[in-house]
């Protein structure tokens, strides 16, 4: 679910919505020229000469002492000494060595390209010269940080950028943060006739995810006439990026934009009035076969994922692989298949989902929320009293001991006397060891942690305190030890609900910063909220949902694969052992017997975990198709709450979402019930 503002949610919930908007950018980049480009001129020693061609803004800027260049605003960093080259930050611009100096780029061979895009940053040249092959010169004026020209450069093998004047004074070096061999063409509402975005993913990684985008635009300026040799259409290449954003007008008149996943050009067509583009996800480009892992060796599924992604040539900032895969060790060989199929098998074996996010990054994330149990949450603390059992906060404890602190103990039969330290202690919740002073302060703030089995997103969190609740506490969420959010809770009651989104975290901390005067903190229950804040209401549906009942599944059997190695003529090959070992999870007494095979699963314990995960999916065999008003922030793999004629707030998961645009939104959702069927009792 994409993150949006409260104003956006209110605007989309209105019976009559405000205006909808679209913006589609098609990159017309000479990909082979971009991939082979290298700087061949001298640059300042703090330059990064490869980052220039990565189509990303520099993350760091060095404060060099040129006219109006160094700033005392904390946004720049001091450069290291020239002898300390290894300390140079990677994400920085290419910088000319001299004032008003040039930067020259060379390709592996001559290329034709339509246009040039240069990101100069805040101290941009107001005029510049572009020289092609040290022969043809083009002079331009410029008034923005990002410079774009649409000239056609034929058989270019060298490009030299020379500044002729700068904004805020000419005593500067040339800085280029990004250089693209081409331009992006943007279509907005007045040029878009229609568009459709389809997003489909498997919750059990049974198949590869699929993104499909189509857009038809009016060619009012005749820029795409195929018979014009300088037309944009003649410079389009398969695999070009298509960036799409949808906008919603808020009640204050502003437009809030929602970015859709990046797609990559697969085809186009045009006539004298219209041009159409189709795009798909990155996985269609991952058909390269991987065969280096065809031997028995011990490693983690995380290692496998990184190996395959690296083999595809992806950099670490082009993918996200959750640490949960580090906990699964496998020894079976990787099958000889495409890299896309391997990523799907790795995700399936790790009970994860595979998809591409909005930035084009490949993502493998845990996807067993629908079978998570309170007992899967680990509670740790070093702040509890001896009669407390912090683990009980997962399910809630009804046991309260009558601690004789100020205004706490009750003689109404609801509390028990505190036992001796070596006596029998019943299952109470968390009770802090320290007592707050008269001002509510602790000498050391009590705190406790809840660690989740994987990364989750929850909306809202419930607390139940006994006696006098604390006056203030802080909630912090972490992912792999990195602090994500810090929220301060005040005006606390015994039953306290905090309505905040907690996104993508695997650990949550509660630090009690101010207690009730002369009292301990007594926390009886913590309950993480829902997996979604989106409710599909009747008003948004264009027709009644079409419900379907898939054939019942009696059992799910996961095959356990064993391999042996054979050597012939010095070559070692692996061979599967045909021993028919399965782990079977029985769901019911009638229905189909489903068999699942994934050769990365090599022991019964691993097979049992996957079988239970799959069984919960197949037990939820009710699906829905809903035609509705459309919502750009919904993605496949999201959890929603849906109204029906019988049930309200029914939890469902999005298997496929089609969003259409023709001046307004409409869409179709394919949903599946998402209830904990396996451990429901």
Which short descriptors sum up this protein?
681 residues, mainly beta, Jelly Rolls, Phage tail protein beta-alpha-beta fold, 14-stranded mixed beta sheet, 7-stranded antiparallel beta sheet, 5 helices, 39 strands
What's the helix and strand layout?
Blueprint: H1 6-13, E1 20-29, H2 31-36, E2 38-39, E3 94-99, E4 103-119, E5 125-132, E6 136-141, E7 146-166, E8 173-176, E9 178-180, E10 182-188, E11 192-200, E12 210-218, E13 241-249, E14 255-259, E15 263-270, E16 274-280, E17 289-290, E18 299-300, H3 301-311, E19 319-321, E20 329-330, E21 337-338, H4 339-349, E22 352-356, E23 362-366, E24 378-380, E25 430-431, E26 447-465, E27 472-479, E28 482-489, E29 495-514, E30 522-530, E31 535-536, E32 546-549, E33 553-568, E34 571-586, E35 592-596, H5 604-619, E36 622-628, E37 639-642, E38 650-661, E39 665-673
Helix pairs in contact: 3-4
Question: What's the short version?
Answer:
The chain is mostly beta strands and 681 residues long. It contains five helices and 39 strands. Strands 1, 10, 11, 12, 13, 14, 15, 16, 31, 32, 36, 37, 38 and 39 form a 14-stranded mixed sheet that branches. Strands 24, 25, 26, 27, 28, 29 and 30 form a seven-stranded antiparallel sheet that branches.
